[in-house]
Amino acid sequence: MQIRDKVAVVTGAASGIGLAIARLFVAEGAKVVAVDWHAEAIAAAVADIGGTIIGMTGNVAVEADCVAMIDRAIAEYGRIDILVNNAGVMDLFQSVADLDNETWRRCMSVNVDGPMYAMRRAVPLMLAQGGGSIINIASVAATGGGAAGAAYTASKHALIGLTKSTAFQYARLGLRCNALAVGGVSTNIMDSVDNSRLDQAALGRLGAYHSSSPGTLEPIDIANAVLFLASDAARHLNGAVLPVDMGWSAA
């Protein structure tokens, strides 16, 4: 097993990609702290997965919650080897002229502030133990402008910048930081927004891009890529943005 006895923190772990990652990590012998803002859902997920896994309720937009989840890994397992920043929210597909402050701040707080808070707490601990692996779940929206609205697109671009900066700064100290630019995945991320408020005009424009998608991935497809980046098999990959999109970004 590629990550046996490694300690991992996974955010957004109650459903979709995060749930698939947590399940696969436990199956591969890792010790997991699974975090989500839905208390009942994370409790159910942990009970279903079984094995060496702890569930926590937390909102990554709150710095104290991010600190608490990293500290929980240290308290329970004595170290943190892997951090997967998966929790994220979608926008309303608004173009910049129609973008409201609430949507902008929500996307930035969950999609950018959260990973930064978690990384800021985890990195010194990883360095003290000799290294670690951070994987940030980005999107095809991180490398282009046609996949989502202005808020989500900007947040995922920012996440890539955070990934690359971290990778470069700590490359000689045993710490790796990579990202996945995922394509369309069968998840419930649209539950994070009020569908009645979606910008239909902007969606019409974005349809040209979405029509080029080769298909929809399953959460396990992303989890398998995360497992690879977390493992020693990817020890020479640092600062990479790995597309997992069935070739969508190649169009």
Automatic annotation (TrEMBL):
Coiled coil: none
Keyword Kinase: no
TM annotation in the entry: 7-26
PROSITE patterns: ADH_SHORT (PS00061)
Keyword annotations of the record: Membrane, Oxidoreductase, Transmembrane, Transmembrane helix
Family annotation (Gene3D superfamilies): NAD(P)-binding Rossmann-like Domain (3.40.50.720)
Family: Belongs to the short-chain dehydrogenases/reductases (SDR) family.
Protein name: 3-ketoacyl-ACP reductase
Species of origin: Devosia limi DSM 17137
Lineage: Bacteria, Pseudomonadati, Pseudomonadota, Alphaproteobacteria, Hyphomicrobiales
